[in-house]
Amino acid sequence: MSMSEQAYLDLCKRVLEEGTKKEDRTKTGTLSVFGHQMRFDLAEGFPLLTTKFVPFRLIVSELIWFIQGDTNIRYLLKHNNNIWNEWAFKKWVESDEYTGPDMDNFGHRANEDPSFKELYLKEMDKFKKSILEDDEFAAKYGDLGSVYGSQWRKWRTSKGETIDQLKGVIQAIKQNPDSRRHLITAWNPEDVPSNMALPPCHTMFQFYVADGKLSCQLYQRSGDIFLGVPFNIASYALLTYLIAKECGLKPGEFIHTLGDAHIYSNHIEQIKTQLKREPRNLPNLHIQDFQTIFDLEAEDISLENYDPHPAIKAPVAV
């Protein structure tokens, strides 16, 4: 059994047993603990959960999107990735230009009312089509503001300049691997209240080089344990693999530190189902040779020997 996956399953058990009931922004309700850390030895294999199917291609295209500094969902839609749609869709249906049926509180209503869900899906399909085919519409409603890609690659300074944090960290790892300053932050206090579709949940990460290995620690202020955290584990593990490869290092550990770690009330039964399953062997990651991660395409990254249990569906809290 993979000790890496067990770290995640132990988090699930802890929150079910010790979690405090809390209200939240989405009005769904959660069980929550504050402060938890998981460690994943990347030598064991790639830490993609096996107790349920996790769509690796979505993780890859989202990470490439971040790395490229993109903040518009058009790139994701071109790669059949719909994980950020709801936040862009919300921006559109709350605008003065939207003239369709009432979409207020669409996330909850779609889960509770089948007739509304059918209406919502039709509006979402129209929205996605417009993003893909209409440049002006995509520029206005597909952009999510200063989210991860923008902060990683184009952090705005008080002088009106920008800082490419990701490129700078990679250069620093190559030139001064023992530095304690290999950090990237996505939490920009100026942008959080007004210029982001969703304030960053994974707020800061740091790289560490020892014995020819590159490790990464992520601080995540808020973690949706069932839907979000499995993506976050795999995404930052993948980023660690990619940067290690560019810098001529081996992947070391991924350390995941969580602030508010929570299970949404409408995910509890899904978590219980997952906990009844036995973990399987972790898959292996294959990356095509490249000069720099900024030239990578999603097709350059693949997974081998991934044999998970079936997917477990759950609604997204928006």
UniProtKB/TrEMBL annotation:
It is an enzyme of class 2 (transferase). It catalyses: dUMP + (6R)-5,10-methylene-5,6,7,8-tetrahydrofolate = 7,8-dihydrofolate + dTMP. It comes from the Bacteria. One of its GO terms (biological process) is methylation. The active site is at C201 (nucleophile), C201. Residues 6-318 form the Thymidylate synthase/dCMP hydroxymethylase domain. Pathway: Pyrimidine metabolism; dTTP biosynthesis. The keyword ATP-binding does not apply. It is found in: Cytoplasm. GO terms for cellular component: cytosol. GO terms for molecular function: thymidylate synthase activity. Keywords: Cytoplasm, Methyltransferase, Nucleotide biosynthesis, Transferase. (6R)-5,10-methylene-5,6,7,8-tetrahydrofolate binds at D224, A317. DUMP binds at R25, R180, R181, R221, S222, G223, D224, N232, H262, I263, Y264. Homodimer. NCBIfam families: PRK01827.1-2, thym_sym. Belongs to the thymidylate synthase family. Bacterial-type ThyA subfamily. Catalyzes the reductive methylation of 2'-deoxyuridine-5'-monophosphate (dUMP) to 2'-deoxythymidine-5'-monophosphate (dTMP) while utilizing 5,10-methylenetetrahydrofolate (mTHF) as the methyl donor and reductant in the reaction, yielding dihydrofolate (DHF) as a by-product. This enzymatic reaction provides an intracellular de novo source of dTMP, an essential precursor for DNA biosynthesis. This is Thymidylate synthase. It comes from Gracilibacillus dipsosauri. The gene is thyA.
